[in-house]
Each structure stands twice: as structure tokens, then as C-alpha cells.
Automatic annotation (TrEMBL):
SUPFAM superfamilies attached to this UniProt entry: Acyl-CoA N-acyltransferases (Nat)
Protein name: RimJ/RimL family protein N-acetyltransferase
InterPro entries assigned to the protein according to its UniProt record, in alphabetical order: Acyl_CoA_acyltransferase, GNAT_dom, N-acetyltransferase
Span of domain N-acetyltransferase: 9-154
Gene source species: Cytobacillus oceanisediminis
Keywords recorded for this protein, A-Z: Transferase
Highest taxon of source: Bacteria
Amino acid sequence: MKVLETDRLILRRLTTDDAAFILELLNEPGWIRYIGDKGVRTLEDAKNYILTGPMKMYSQLGFGLFLVERKEGCTPIGMCGLLKRDSLEDVDIGFAFLSRYQTQGYGFEAASATLRYGHEQLGLKRILAITTLDNYASSRLLEKIKMKYEGTNS
């Protein structure tokens, strides 16, 4: 189900049919380094991740992480969306892209559209973002979408 569209991208809800892509994305070195190893090693693990993560959040809240695909060729390139974590008071934006699609403006395009969607369609007043201190690429992207640094957790 398509949720958002930009000039070059479609953001849509994930389904278990996206398991092969999720298996690849969650095992990217950048994902493991900056987001963490989710233990997704098989297609079955990937399907379970989709069911218990994004699809569960869609049914509970109406939003979650969306698959980002290029319009040209319907190629899946990453995920971007809004999450409600138990550890945070507010919703936060999350994103991750296959390394071969990074530094091409896709993250900015997807994250900008997702922020607008959160504020305008969902009526969210405040959206957070979290990243590790050494994830410079994510920090730069967050600055580009006008997120303001508030501090670190120790």
C-alpha cells in the first residue's frame, strides 16, 4: 500500500513479500554498526521481523517503517518511516538505505516527505530522531531536514 510519493520515490507499507530485501538491508555493515544486529539471517527471520515490527506498528498506530523504492524499476533501496518506541515519549523518524544507494539524495527525499507526512497527515507536533555519535552521515541528513540537536544519553 503506497503511503507517500516523491519525485523519484514511492514509500509503501512493507509486506512479508519484502523479506529478501529486508534480509539484505538488515545485514548491511552500516545497519549492523549503527542500528544493531537484529539476528535476521534467513528469509523466515526477515518475514518475522516484518510481521512483529513494521506490520504490527501499522495495525496498532497506522504508521511505521515504510519500504522506499525507486519509481524507476520499482527497485527497493531502503526504509524510512516513523516509529513509536517504548523508550521515547515522542515518535521518531528512522531510515536506512542499502549502501549502493547512499549519497544520492534518496535519504533526504524520503526523510523530508516522511516528516511532512508526520506533521501534516498524522498531526504529530514533535518528531524526534536518534543516532549514534559516530554516524556522521545520519547526523548530516538530520541537519539537512532541519532537525535540531538536543543532546546525548549517557
